Automatic annotation (TrEMBL):
Family assignment from sequence similarity: Belongs to the ADPRibase-Mn family.
Cofactor(s) it depends on: Mg(2+)
Enzyme Commission number(s) of this protein: 3.6.1.13, 3.6.1.16, 3.6.1.53
GO MF annotation: an example: ADP-ribose diphosphatase activity
Record bears the keyword Cell wall biogenesis/degradation: no
Broadest EC class assigned to this enzyme: hydrolase
Species whose genome carries this gene: Hordeum vulgare subsp. vulgare
Catalytic activity: CDP-glycerol + H2O = sn-glycerol 3-phosphate + CMP + 2 H(+); ADP-D-ribose + H2O = D-ribose 5-phosphate + AMP + 2 H(+); CDP-choline + H2O = phosphocholine + CMP + 2 H(+)
Protein's name according to its UniProt entry: Manganese-dependent ADP-ribose/CDP-alcohol diphosphatase
Domain Calcineurin-like phosphoesterase: from-to ranges: 23-268
Length: 327
């Protein structure tokens, strides 16, 4: 047994050489058949090349010796600049690339750019989500994955006159004084997250998360939470965080079974271990890979350890598990 450097528990050192199973990861493909451009802050974006990054990811997962069992796409499948009349075909083109993955299912989540382009109901259907945008699955005995809908409470993705959209606009109005609610100008520190391109997990979803984690904890399962929006300030820019990350984290911490929270959205990526020993890894974006470069990876799951093996701009990250029940 090893003392955890953060002093929050103990780590069972993993001696296994072969993973129990592996899964592929990719974030922010934001594909569009349009010329290269830049983000609002001037970072180059390669809208056509991003699907090539996905193609290379799928080839890599398919050729993985021990087998990649499923893959997780962390949202923003299509870019907001994609012409609206070509958005559905752009999403279908990306889904077709995921269909070339032979290892198992591809699990998707909603990002803000998905919702700029298509109605949520159409996305849930084309991305083959189980009737709604938050769900859980168990790919291996003793392991559970939770996919969050980080735009459940949001000013994007709901019809303008929908009560959720109206409540989210009021929420932003109270926290962001700018006339352009996408602008964090003047907001300090973590308050910079109160912008329209972010969102939150609604009350009903929080209750669902609580019950999934309670059951997982009772069954002794190890849980990985997947969300487009990062949940920890140490793993992302303040302007990239989920609006109610503190509420979501409180639920995550309550049951002591979550090993890691994986996210996309903040394209440069990030990593932190929180005070309860939960790993937070924000994945580097496929969209911002200059031609010929990559950002994807696979996570090897060992008893007591998750090991992200990154390709190209996606950094590798070793994540020894610090779960209270392991102590
Ligand atoms: N300061 C800003 C930043 C952005 N906008 C506008 O908001 C929309 C979404 O921005 P975008 O950078 O495309 O969003 P991503 O989801 O790709 O990335 C999120 C960040 O990386 C989180 O850290 C777009 O219309 C921008 O122009 C803005 O007005 N002001």
């Amino acid at each position: 047994m090893l003392a955890h450097p953060g002093g929050v528990g103990v780590v069972r050192a993993s001696v296994a050489r072969e993973p129990l199973f592996s899964f592929g990861v990719i974030a922010d493909v934001q594909y569009a058949d349009i010329p290269d451009g830049r983000s609002f802050l001037g970072v180059p974006r390669y809208y056509r090349h991003s699907i090539t990054v996905l193609q290379r990811a799928v080839r890599s997962w398919n050729s993985h010796k021990a087998g990649v069992k499923f893959c997780v796409n962390f949202g923003d499948i299509v870019d907001g600049f994609c012409p609206k009349d070509r958005s559905l075909s752009a999403v279908q083109a990306v889904v077709a690339e995921f269909d070339r993955f032979h290892g198992g299912p591809a699990y998707h989540m909603l990002g803000n750019h998905c919702l700029y382009n298509l109605p949520r109901s159409e996305l849930v259907s084309v991305l083959r989500m189980p009737g709604r945008a938050y769900y859980d699955f168990s790919p291996w005995p003793g392991y559970r994955f939770v996919v969050l809908d980080a735009y459940d409470f949001s000013a994007v993705g709901w019809p303008r006159d929908h009560p959720v959209a109206a409540a989210a606009r009021r929420f932003l109005e109270e926290r962001n004084p700018n006339s352009d609610k996408n602008s964090p100008t003047g907001l300090a520190g973590e308050d910079r997250r109160f912008v329209m391109f972010n969102g939150g997990v609604g009350e009903k979803q929080l209750r669902w998360l609580d019950s999934v984690l309670r059951d997982a904890s009772r069954r002794g399962e190890t849980v990985v939470v997947c969300s487009h929006l990062p949940l920890h300030p140490g793993a992302a820019s303040p302007a990239g965080l989920m609006w109610n990350y503190e509420e979501a984290l409180a639920v995550v911490h309550r049951h002591g079974c979550v090993a890691a929270c994986l996210a996309g959205h903040d394209h440069k990526g990030g990593y932190a271990v929180d005070a309860c020993g939960v790993h937070h890894r924000t994945l580097e974006a496929a969209l911002e890979c200059p031609p010929g470069t990559d950002a994807f990876g696979h996570v090897n799951v060992f008893p007591g350890r998750l090991s992200l093996v990154g390709s190209g701009r996606m950094a590798s990250t070793d994540m020894p598990l610090v779960l209270p029940r392991l102590s």
